[in-house]
Amino acid sequence: MDKTSDHEFEMTFFESVLKRSPDYTDVIEILGGLYTKHGRISDGLKMDRKLVRYLPDNATAHYNLACSLALSKRQTDALK
Fold first, then answer.
1. Angle separating helix axes 25-37 and 41-54, nearest 10 degrees
2. Do the Cβ atoms of 58 and 66 come closer than 8 Å?
3. pLDDT for residue 3
4. Helix crossing, 59-71 with 41-54: angle to 10°?
5. Taking the CB of residue 28, how many other CB atoms lie within 10 A of it?
6. In angstroms, rounded to a whole number, what is the distance separating the alpha carbons of residues 70 and 72?
7. Which ranges constitute the DSSP H helices of the chain?
8. CA 12 – CA 27 distance, rounded (Å)
9. Cα–Cα distance measured from residue 55 to residue 52, given in angstroms and rounded to the nearest whole number
10. Which residue, among 1, 74, 76, 72, has the nearest Cα to 32 in the 3D structure?
11. What are the φ/ψ torsions at residue 17 (nearest 5 degrees)?
12. For 8-13, which contacts have Cβ atoms below 8 Å and span 24 or more sequence positions?
């Protein structure tokens, strides 16, 4: 299996877990990181927003959201 297949397998696996358990925050965080790492910035941003909704007091979730916003060229929103 090549590297592309590995990360596609990972994303597909975690997406299937999330479909069965849409509030599984560990999986939301993992998917956000995978999407962003592999250039799917808007999908990563969606996961980060979702994670902040579920975990509003989690500093790491807010940090990841800010990073995704910055990568989406939304620096003002990222700073908020």
1. 160
2. no
3. 60
4. 150
5. 25
6. 5
7. 3-20, 25-37, 41-54, 59-71, 75-79
8. 12
9. 5
10. 72
11. -65, -45
12. 10/34, 11/35, 11/38
| 17: amino acid identity, one letter | V
State pLDDT tens for residues 7-57.
889 999 999 999 999 999 999 999 999 999 999 999 999 999 999 999 999
Q: Are 11 and 38 in contact (CB under 8 A)?
A: yes
Contacts of 62 (CB under 8 A, 6+ apart): 52
Q: Which residue has the tokens 């956000």?
A: 32
pLDDT of residue 57: 97
State both tokens at 7: 């990360």
Gap between the Cα atoms of 57 and 8, Å rounded: 31
Per-residue pLDDT at 10: 92
